[in-house]
């Protein structure tokens, strides 16, 4: 899932032309110009863009330089939402145009680490992506098991399917789990044009956390997500549970080992990536036991939640 090319936005009128003053006017003010020879010259250029760096070692994701405060670092055609919000956790306005975008949330104090999703608790957040295609109710069964252990997880659901099963989002939040936006149809956002990319985010599950498909989002995607009220949330530990070897899904033991053998830095304030369609849910009991044996704690379930996730995370 690596090797994607980044799309870079064109500059937006940074170097505007200034009108030249008429000669008479220039002569009239020449004395003032002379007296201001040492005045500070104002420049209307914007600050340098947060240009994505080359792909890193983690799943081919693009990270942004540390000075990019705020955030660092195929699918079916994008669907169109119906009128209003049907109460299924999916944001819609029935129009794919860029009209009346909500204002971007104010930047939090400090630097938001998108790989840790704002987790500063010292605990570990378990996350489950996509959709359990052959068994939609698997999501809430997993949610119930985690709740029984006092664990709060985050589920990033594909909006198209969440809209078909609105009770899933509602039940997961009632169980005390966060539910985030994983786009509408799981298309690779950087490869889409502006309108398509906007629709994929806008029509996804309502909330304020976005996990871009493949974890891939550059400055254009981050900016659009912020305009729609979302913070990007990736991960520090990729279990690679989605991989197949000779047609076979990655085993429970291999998934378990990928978490057990991760570095302390990846675990503390960490975020673990797994998927609802893989063997990751079956590996969760062993993963939780291993983490506890290593002295790590997991985000605590404190009861029902809303569609808004606090920053820093309430773990």
Provide a descriptive summary of the structure in words:
- The protein is of the alpha/beta class and 315 residues long.
- The chain contains ten helices and nine strands.
- The strands form three sheets. Strands 3-2-1-9-6 form a five-stranded parallel sheet.
- Helix 3 (138-148) links the parallel strand 1 and strand 2.
- The longest helix has 14 residues, at 280-293.
- The relative contact order is 0.17.
- The model is unreliable at 1-104 (pLDDT under 50).
What does the secondary structure layout of this molecule look like, with pairings?
Layout: H1 23-28, H2 30-35, E1 125-130, H3 138-148, E2 153-157, H4 159-164, H5 166-174, E3 178-181, H6 194-202, E4 209-210, H7 219-227, E5 231-232, E6 237-238, E7 244-245, E8 248-249, H8 252-260, H9 264-267, E9 271-275, H10 280-293
Parallel strand pairs: 1-2, 1-9, 2-3, 4-5, 6-9
Antiparallel strand pairs: 7-8
Task: List descriptors.
about 10% strand; two-stranded parallel ribbon; disordered N terminus; 10 helices; alpha/beta; about 325 residues; globular
Can you give me a brief rundown of this structure?
The chain is α/β, with parallel strands linked by helices and 315 residues long.
Approximately how much beta-strand content do the residues carry?
A: 5-15%
How far is it from the N-terminal to the C-terminal residue, by CA?
30 Å
DSSP helix fraction: 25-40%
| Secondary structure tally, helices | 10
Beta strand count = 9
Strand order of the largest sheet: 3-2-1-9-6
Would you list the SSEs in sequence order as H and E?
Answer: HHEHEHHEHEHEEEEHHEH
Largest pleated sheet: 5 strands, parallel
Choose one word for the global shape.
globular
- Flag low-confidence runs: 1-104
Mean pLDDT: 76
Assembly type: single chain
Instruction: Report Rg.
Output: 23 Å
Q: Which structural class should the secondary elements be placed in?
A: alpha/beta
């Amino acid at each position: 899932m690596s090797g994607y090319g980044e799309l870079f936005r064109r500059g937006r009128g940074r170097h505007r032309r200034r009108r030249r003053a008429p000669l008479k006017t220039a002569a009239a003010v020449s004395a003032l110009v002379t007296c201001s020879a040492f005045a500070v010259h104002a420049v209307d250029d914007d600050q340098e863009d947060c240009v994505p760096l080359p792909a890193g070692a983690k799943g081919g994701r693009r990270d942004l330089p540390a000075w990019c405060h705020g955030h660092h670092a195929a699918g079916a055609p994008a669907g169109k939402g119906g009128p209003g919000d049907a109460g299924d956790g999916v944001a819609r306005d029935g129009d794919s145009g860029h009209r009346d975008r909500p204002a971007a949330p104010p930047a939090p104090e400090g630097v938001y680490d998108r790989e840790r999703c704002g987790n500063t608790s010292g605990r570990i957040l378990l996350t489950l992506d996509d959709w359990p295609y052959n068994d939609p109710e698997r999501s809430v069964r997993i949610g119930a098991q985690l709740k029984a252990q006092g664990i709060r997880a985050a589920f990033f659901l594909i909006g198209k399917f969440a809209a078909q099963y609105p009770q899933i989002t509602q039940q997961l939040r009632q169980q005390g789990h966060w539910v985030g936006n994983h786009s509408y149809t799981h298309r690779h956002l950087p490869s889409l044009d502006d309108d398509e990319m906007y629709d994929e985010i806008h029509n996804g599950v309502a909330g304020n956390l976005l996990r871009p498909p493949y974890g891939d989002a550059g400055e254009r995607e981050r900016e659009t997500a912020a305009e729609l009220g979302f913070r990007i949330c990736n991960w520090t530990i990729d279990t690679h549970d989605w991989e197949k070897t000779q047609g076979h899904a990655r085993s429970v033991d291999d998934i378990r080992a990928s978490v057990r053998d991760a570095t302390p830095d990846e675990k503390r304030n960490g975020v673990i990536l797994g998927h609802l369609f893989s063997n990751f849910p079956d590996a969760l009991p062993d993963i939780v036991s291993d983490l506890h044996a290593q002295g790590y704690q997991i985000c605590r379930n404190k009861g029902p939640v809303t569609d808004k996730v606090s920053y820093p995370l309430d773990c």
